TrEMBL record:
Reaction(s) this enzyme catalyzes, per UniProt: thiamine + H2O = 5-(2-hydroxyethyl)-4-methylthiazole + 4-amino-5-hydroxymethyl-2-methylpyrimidine + H(+); 4-amino-5-aminomethyl-2-methylpyrimidine + H2O = 4-amino-5-hydroxymethyl-2-methylpyrimidine + NH4(+)
Name this protein carries in UniProt: Aminopyrimidine aminohydrolase
Listed NCBIfam families: salvage_TenA
Annotated organism of origin: Cobetia crustatorum
UniProt pathway: Cofactor biosynthesis; thiamine diphosphate biosynthesis
MF terms in GO: thiaminase activity
Family: Belongs to the TenA family.
EC number: 3.5.99.2
Gene Ontology annotations of biological process type: thiamine biosynthetic process; thiamine diphosphate biosynthetic process
UniProt xrefs under Gene3D superfamilies: Heme oxygenase-like
Thiaminase-2/PQQC domain mapped to chain residues: 14-217
Pfam families assigned: TENA_THI-4 (PF03070)
Length: 219
């Protein structure tokens, strides 16, 4: 019976390149150029808006009350908690809400967000969750990996709050809940269907890699 771990194993090279991207390594060491982080923060705001749209689509795609509740709870969290926190965090980096409202989308943001929405529109709820998994589960794994590295700087690291955010108990709980949901659904799919989902997961992970690179290149 396949599981989320089998997805990451099937895309091991891409998953490694995403979790341990140079953007992540520099962030952990406190050496990431501040302009690169600001650019990432701004584009991540736009990504969160589309992330909310994806959960709205998940609500539409839901076939049970429990799935509908899960989707609407995630949508509410993004709209009323995460975006508010993100706007406040951006303000600490000198980026106002007016600045955020006028941002153009980078090509990496366009490609990634539209891919996720397309997966949800043409596929089913599982396709959509698999396309979202590199973000929700991946950020948690990245934070865990950073905390395990001797080279990661916490004290006097300007990005320590970012690491703390994605290693928090609340985020870990959300990550584990999503992993359990995926494990339950993946255990029921055929070999052929699992192969299709591997392709979705690999493409979404590659687009996450491009998102990190977009931050470094400030493209």
């Amino acid at each position: 019976m396949p599981s989320f771990k089998d997805l990451t194993n099937a895309c091991a090279d891409e998953w490694y390149d995403y979790l341990q991207h140079d953007f992540v390594r520099q962030l952990g060491k406190g050496r990431l150029p501040e302009d690169a982080f600001r650019h990432y923060l701004q584009q991540d705001y736009l990504f969160l808006i589309h992330f909310a749209r994806a959960w709205a689509l998940a609500a539409y795609k839901s076939r049970s009350l429990s799935e509908l509740r899960q989707a609407t709870a995630s949508l509410d969290t993004i709209l009323n908690t995460e975006l508010t926190l993100h706007i406040g965090y951006c303000a600490e980096w000198g980026i106002s809400e007016d600045d955020l409202s006028e941002l153009p989308e980078s090509r990496a943001t366009l490609a990634y967000t539209r891919y996720v929405l397309d997966c949800g529109q043409r596929g089913d709820l599982l396709d959509l969750h698999v396309a979202l998994a590199p973000c929700l589960i991946g950020y948690g794994e990245i934070a865990e990996w950073l905390l395990d590295q001797d080279s990661t700087l916490i004290e006097d690291n300007p990005y320590a709050d970012w690491i703390a955010m994605y290693s928090s108990d609340d985020f870990k709980a959300a990550m584990e809940s999503e992993r359990e949901w995926l494990d339950a659904r993946l255990s029921e799919v055929s070999e052929r269907r699992f192969g299709e989902l591997v392709d979705v997961f690999r493409d979404a992970t590659r687009l996450e890699i491009d998102f990190w690179q977009m931050g470094l290149d400030q493209d």
